[in-house]
Specification:
Oligomer: single chain
Helix content: 25-40%
Number of strands: 11
């Protein structure tokens, strides 16, 4: 497998990246029309952590972390490393030593569509990580790949410089040219949810706030007393 290492790709504006840091993964995905989410198989190795940054992408051979070493040189302040493989892999391609090198360069975390190891050490050093698997299996450094090219994870295309947001709920990718609009849409959604939260605290029901009673009627859902239901179902009342 030959490959390419692309240097100096365009990135989302830093102010737009930081604006997205105020919102959770679920809010941002909803603000983009329920798009951008990686699948539920990519899970955090820690809890209570949210990170946002610009993607440095890696396409590796399964069980081979050579291109992660090559990618470290391309990483800088505010980046998030995103790693995937040419076919499914659960080998532990990333661990404490990589995290140490990346932290020195200002990298905010890693998303890896494969295995990760040294999870206790990663938590102790507060280096955020999301992975497909946790596995102690080691890897080799023998096969070429690519850095800073578009990659696909769970049907989502991630380009170098796109915004990656990750928290306890998972990972979402925001195309770099949509970062500002998505931050604005997320802010509007948060404001809308704040009003709903206040209404629910005041005792209002979602059934009434969202007009769902009419929806139930349209769908033919009926309210029946227990006695009526029991009689129709032939059950003792």
């Amino acid at each position: 497998m030959s490959g390419v290492i692309v240097t100096g790709p365009p990135k989302a504006e830093r102010k737009d990246v930081e604006a997205l840091a105020a919102f959770g993964v679920a809010t941002v995905s909803e603000a983009m029309g329920r798009t951008g989410l990686l699948g539920p198989g990519i899970r955090p190795v820690q809890q209570g952590v949210r990170v946002v940054g610009t993607a440095v992408t890696v396409l590796s051979w399964p069980g081979d972390n050579l291109m992660i070493h090559a990618a470290v040189e391309q990483c800088g302040e505010g980046d998030i490393l995103v790693v995937t493989t040419t076919s499914p892999s659960t080998d532990g391609m990333f661990g404490e030593l990589f995290a140490t090198a990346l932290r020195r360069r200002g990298v905010r975390g890693v998303i890896i569509n494969a295995g990760i190891r040294d999870t206790q050490e990663l938590r102790e050093m507060d280096f955020p990580a999301w992975s497909r698997a946790v596995c102690a299996q080691g890897t080799v450094k023998a096969t070429g790949g690519s850095v800073n090219v578009p990659v696909a994870v769970d049907g989502q295309v991630i380009r170098p410089g796109d915004v990656i947001l990750a928290d306890d709920d998972g990972v979402v990718v925001v195309p770099r040219e949509r970062a500002r609009a998505t931050a604005e849409a997320s802010e509007a959604r948060e404001a809308k949810e704040a009003k709903a939260r206040a209404a629910f605290l005041d005792g209002q029901l979602g059934m009434d706030r969202y007009g769902l009673r009419d929806t139930l009627t349209r769908l033919g859902v009926e309210y029946r007393t227990f006695e009526e239901y029991a009689a129709d179902a032939g059950e003792p009342s």
